[in-house]
Amino acid sequence: MNKLSALIATLFAAATLTAFAQATPATPAKPAEPAKATGTKATPAMPAMPAKPAATAAKSDKDDMNKDKNKKKKVKKAKKEKTEKTAAAKADAKKAAPKKDDMKEAAKK
Question: 76: alpha, beta or left, given left = phi > 0 and alpha = psi -120 to 50?
Fold first, then answer.
């Protein structure tokens, strides 16, 4: 038992010596240097913009909605005119196209 405790004591002593007997660095780390001035002056901050009243904001929202409605109306009107034109063109094409009976007679001749 004495041998065991002596062995543990020597191992502990060796471990502490190796832990605390490490070499220190040659030169300690230098602290960071502050930033150098470049010679330009700081510009003052811009003044704050005054707040718009809530009523003005609501009016602009209504104006935007009215513009959107007008655009939708224009688009619907344009689509309607386009469909009318295509319908008229189809009707003209049907009138101008020869009928099957006429084609058969022309083929017989």
Answer: alpha
